[in-house]
Amino acid sequence: MAVDAGVRRTGRSAVLGERDFGWFFVGYATSLVGSSMAPVAVAFAVLGGGGGGTELGWVMAARILPIVLVMLLGGVVADRLGSRRVMLAAEVLRCAVQGVFAGLLLTGHPPLGAMVALVAVWGLGEGVFLPSLGALVPTLVRRKERLSDANTLLGLARSVSTVAGPALAGVITAGCGPGVVLAVDAATYGVGALALARLSVIPPGTTTGSGSGAGSGAGADDREDSMLADLRNGWSAFRSRRWLWVTTVQMGLFNLLVWAPFLVLGPLTAQRELGGARAWGLVMGVYGVGAVLGGLSMLGRRPGRPLAVATVATLGWALPSASLAAGLPLGWTVAAALVAGAGSAVCGSLYASTLQRWVPAEVLARVTAFGGLGAFVLGPLGLAAAGPLADRVGVAAVLAFGAGWQLLAAAAVLAVRAVRRRGWDDGSGADAGVVEPARSTAGAG
Prior knowledge:
The protein is an all-alpha fold and 445 residues long. It contains 17 helices and no strands. The chain has 2 domains: 10-211, Growth Hormone, Chain: A, CATH 1.20.1250.20; 224-427, MFS general substrate transporter like domains (Growth Hormone, Chain: A), CATH 1.20.1250. 76% of the residues lie in helices and 0% in strands.
């Protein structure tokens, strides 16, 4: 009780006063703005070079596929070498790639093959960066009661960037061309790299190259076996926590059945019934505003049952699809997007904080990688199938099914005791897979 009161006296954003987290937040927020600008520039670079929808699809897929393919490897490497090192390398790689891409655009029209290759390397850097992010944050926050605020602030940065980045990119692209946008993106990655270089984080002592916690006895000449052992250990840590794999399955099916169809069929519905691209832009912009408001509402708050609150928040994702399926006026869909965006920020912050609190530091990057892979691997399938399925059964039917599924899935997850009873501290009705919570101080083992 006294600890919580101290947090309130120092302010809801007191975690920014911690040196390492403050530096990281500045660098990460800056690079996020560039990352959210880049897709707009890349799309117009493809279209400006004579490409069409097919070519644009190739380029978009070239970014997503490497993320899925290297995420698990990125988790292993991060647990071995330390998350800061891996993230620093990823930032430098993405800075170089976007710099080269910008140079090609500023001096002419690069061929499609070159754009595909560059975007693929960009995705490779993202796939390595993402699992490291989840493992780094607890080492930057010395007071564990501030971990939720740290994740909330990072989520807020992501939400703000999704609103500001595309709008800024559109203005710059229209006035100066996509090459300038990618040059700015490269510079923001440079800022992120500089911030990471200033951190004083000490990687866990188990990540010295021996295969943290692998227990395989592998020597230097058996590196492949050792890495496989690391993956097996990460998988064991992931599947032994019922609350973790249950919520991951929920997120994976959400992306397949709800979000992917919404992203494909939402613009189509907006074009046919709501007024076109401007209406769809309003819906997605308000979704971002909702995420910002949801993040702000979480600062300084630590609900006693974080996963239960997070799961309730996922109910909001059903509303935009339901509004479109019911043929409601634009105002209703905008309001639904606002609620869904707020829910996304709440559940994202609480899921991340719970994961970092209850998974040991030496396997956190690998567990984060398994969770990310499970959540996103079915997304591309949903994107590809939404259109053909809607042609067969109708747009409204696909969207309505997604909305209904989301409601049922949230109810099913809440019925799982390990999710419903999960708290911040031991003795909260945890399932048998729980071990000692991960320490949040730098250098924790």
